[in-house]
Amino acid sequence: MFQYSMTQWILGNEAVENSFKRLEKYGYDGIEFAAEPYTLDVEEMLCLMKKYGMRCTSLCGIFSEERDLSASDKETAEKAVRYLCDSIDWAAKAGASCLIVVPSPVGRTAPVQGVSYQQAWENAVKNIRSAADHAREQGIVLVIEAINRYETYLVNTIAKAIRFVKEIDHPAVGMMADLFHMSLEENNIGQSLRMMSPWLKHVHIADNTREAAGMGNTDFKEVLRILKETGYEGVLTMEFMPRVANPYEIGDMDTQSRQMDHYAKQSIEYMKAMEHSLLS
Length: 280
Fold this sequence. Notes:
Shape: globular
Strand order of the largest sheet: 1-2-3-4-5-6-7-8
Oligomer: single chain
Helix content: 40-55%
């Protein structure tokens, strides 16, 4: 059986302990924190994990314009790499196994003026590779996430993400699958999961509407069957959210606690039901 966690950054301004209480209530195994090493106290999170019997499964990198790994500007690039390395250190202290990396800022849907697509690609490859040795030393895998074309422009599809990871060519760099983004960009989710399986280290679960699993059209039974067949041994992490154009707006929103309770319960019960149905 898979283990389940839920990402914390989707919960708006909710007190983190309330998030832990929700996860404990619905039987989750762990939590994915936002990679905010300068504002999120790792010692406090370790105490809460111990209190609620949870583990940190992963960190979700937050890649705004100020954390642009594809930047040509030396100062911006160095700042982005420093953020990556500081997040790696935080992840190691928290006991996470992986850190999600988006090669270009979320919300940027076209190249910046004066920087070609190819140059941005090469910048991102170089900058992520420069942090990969540190990740390996700390026992963390950097997992590249392909984000849909409406939220970013550089790495949108699984095929592009595979090419990107191959160019970095580092044992501490792998991939993650986000079922929401894949529902928009992949012609066949099952084929894409098989294609990426040699590099797959992490999975985000949301339906094609970005709501909780079972509220849309994604065939999660088939997803689970393929993950099992291809030997995926990682965690399944819920990343549902309200319907907003810019996902990073959620961090400043008042938490819809009742909706989040419903989504957290719906997701894990539905996914576990799909797992059990594979055994029958």
